[in-house]
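User: Hey, my collaborator sent me this sequence without any context and asked if I could get a structure. I don't really work with proteins. Can you help?
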Amino acid sequence: MKKLEIIIRPEKLEVVKNILNDFGASGMMVTNIMGFGNQKGSTHMYRGTEYTVNLLPKLKIETVVADEKEKKLIDELCKQVATGNYGDGKIFVYDISNVVRIRTGESGSVAL
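Assistant: No problem. I've predicted the 3D structure and written it out in structure-token form, which is a compact way to encode the shape of the chain:
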């Protein structure tokens, strides 16, 4: 099993939700976050004065998928979420050794 931590632009949430549903992801957690990467924020003009916003709004989506779905899911996310501009986001992949469903005590991929 793999845990995907997907950092995206807020306007791409519906696209990601649809992709995860199409791939049979059993659930997801969405968190509002702020941060910056290589882009280091953005510069804006307000009443003739230039100012920099260092922390940009992003969404972090966490989900766990079966090993065999990981590669195709990541390919599809990259294809549909990318705008070609800085700030499109990142996907972090973690190995999951076990999952336990608290309600029933089931473990492993059955618990997803």
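In plain terms: The chain has a mean pLDDT of 91. You can pass these tokens on to your collaborator as they are.
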